[in-house]
Amino acid sequence: MKLMEEKILSEGKVLPGGILKVGSFLNQQIDTVFLGEMGREIAELFKDCGVTKVLTIEASGIAIAAAVGMAMGVPMVFAKKHKTSNVDGAVYASTVHSFTHNTDYRIVVSSDYLLPGDKVLLVDDFLANGNALKGLMDLVRQAGATLVGVSAAIEKGFQGGGDELRRLGVKVESLAVIDAMDDTSITFRK
Ligand code: 5GP
User: Fold this and answer.
1) Which of 13, 60, 100, 186 best tests ligand 1's pocket when mutated (most atoms within 8 Å of CB)?
2) Lowest CB count within 10 Å: 14, 23, 88, 99, which one?
3) Residue 105 burial by CB count (10 A; 0-12/13-18/19+): exposed, middle or buried?
4) pLDDT, tens digit, for every residue of 92-148?
């Protein structure tokens, strides 16, 4: 998505440790018009896949996943993050290693909202090492639902998570793939 690349170049800021800050349009302030365009673009990429649900993780995935759900006319579900492993009720749970905070956290989703017949599209703001999406894939597997594919607004290709999922046969569509970045330049995958 050319527009995403332009937005990253004009508003993104590369921080030490390989973090791209996009707080001005995706992570804290949200460019709502652009959000709608992202949602429609991702919906178009998966339009023939029979998606019944969009799944993400709180908090930063919610906006874009909701935009995709709205564009597709299907519900959006977000897994909640829990620091402890004490989770009550009928839930699916998995553990995710956070790239940005270098800690492990649990993600849980009620079994009411992920059903065996669901065809699930995973959506997140960033795809880096792929741990967040692998945790969500684990929830989909536990539910007996079908994984349709994954989509991220921004994939940091140099961390390899997206390509690892592609090698496993998962349909991965990111709106922009960054192959290299430092504080002076950002290179996108062609
Ligand atoms: P992964 O699990 O693929 O390594 O990392 C994905 C998660 O980490 C995303 O949900 C996102 O919130 C966060 N993340 C990873 N890299 C970045 C980054 O460069 N910038 C921001 N803002 N978040 C990131």
Assistant:
1) 100
2) 88
3) middle
4) 999 999 988 889 999 999 999 999 999 999 999 999 999 999 999 999 999 999 999
